[in-house]
Amino acid sequence: MNYPTLRFLTGSFLLLCAVAGLRAADDTRVYELRTYTATPGKIANVLARFRDHTTRIFEKHGMINVGYFSPMDAADGAGEKLVYVLEHASRAAATASWAAFNADPEWVEARKASEAQGKIVAKAESVFMSAADFSPALVSKASTPARVFELRTYTTPENGIDALNARFRDHTRALFAQHGIVSVAYWHPTDAPKGAGRTLIYLLAYPSREAATTAWAAFRADPKWIAAKTASETKAGGSLTTDVKSVFLTPTDFSRMK
């Protein structure tokens, strides 16, 4: 290869990298993790309302349905909770979309009809999030058979989020992949009361619950992981997490992501 050609290719590559960096910096998209707790005995009603009305009306008002899930274990709300993720073009767009949704006559009527015998949602929680720089492109796809998902939430010590991010960016994600753990998305909360600056929330996928158990056992025993964990904690002067939460989920029948 001659030098002018090499210089051209090198310059083109650097330009593409710069453009990619600008796109990442200009990405205003936000994600919303929502958890609904049904009133006792009403989870089927909540799911029916989402299946028949809510998801379609969300899309009508610019909200993208990423995935809908039910917890697998009683301790995490199996049989009483719905966990789902929405994508918005921006935080301002989210505010506008929710206002339009709540005022939509079709939604007002659907909600009224579903609550004829009383409220069906006892509690609704929302966490707005931005994608971590090491998060893969989010693809809401169906898999046959449907996969098992795991929502993990890590809380770090004060000023510890950068070290945790670096470990995921440089080591953890690649090692997950080697052991059959699929990284779906990594997010950071955007609001201080919800853990901004100290929290990493991420979603993983597996062929089955048994496959998850096997994969985690292999990952934790991997010498490369042990070395990366030890090095990161030595540098930080202790553990990079103060709290770790894990919730196993199955996709609902109307979830785009399965």
Outline of this structure?
With 258 residues, this protein is of the alpha+beta class. The protein has 7 helices and 8 strands; from the N terminus they run αβαββααββαββααβ. It has helices at residues 3-26, 43-60, 91-103, 105-114, 161-178, 209-221, 223-236, and strands spanning 30-38, 64-71, 81-88, 121-131, 148-155, 182-189, 199-206, 243-251.
Which features does this protein show?
258 residues; alpha+beta; Alpha-Beta Plaits; eight-stranded antiparallel barrel; 8 strands; globular; disordered N terminus
Describe the structure.
The protein is of the alpha+beta class. It has two domains: 30-130, Alpha-Beta Plaits (2-Layer Sandwich); 131-251, Alpha-Beta Plaits. Helix content is 43%, strand content 27%. α2 runs antiparallel to α4 and α5 packs antiparallel against α7. Residues 3-25 have low confidence and may be disordered.
Broad structural category: alpha+beta
CATH class of the largest domain: Alpha Beta
CATH topology of the largest domain: Alpha-Beta Plaits
Report strand order across the widest sheet. Answer: 1-3-2-8-5-7-6-4
Biggest sheet character? 8 strands, antiparallel, barrel
Radius of gyration: 21 Å
Q: Using the alpha-carbon principal axes, give the shape.
A: globular
Cα-to-Cα separation, first versus last residue: 47 Å
Q: What is the tally of helical segments?
A: 7
**What is the residue-mean pLDDT, rounded to a whole number?**
91
Q: Secondary-structure element sequence?
A: HEHEEHHEEHEEHHE
Q: What's the structural domain tally? A: 2
